[in-house]
Write a structure and sequence with these properties.
Blueprint lengths: L1 H38 L2 H8 L3
Length: 52
């Protein structure tokens, strides 16, 4: 019984770490996408061009 409880605890710890890694990866991708969108000045050019 103790071995199965230890296995469950180790498995839950592993899943927790994996969940944190996936969440961190998702957060970095979203911030990278936002930063790249801010660097794209084509949107500003389109707004200024159609202002007339």
């Amino acid at each position: 019984m103790a071995e199965s409880a230890a296995g469950i605890v180790v498995g839950l710890c592993g899943l927790s770490v994996a969940m944190l890694l996936v969440a961190g990866h998702y957060w970095r991708e979203m911030s990278r996408r936002r930063q790249l969108k801010r660097m794209d000045h084509r949107d500003c050019w389109e707004v200024m061009r159609h202002r007339r």
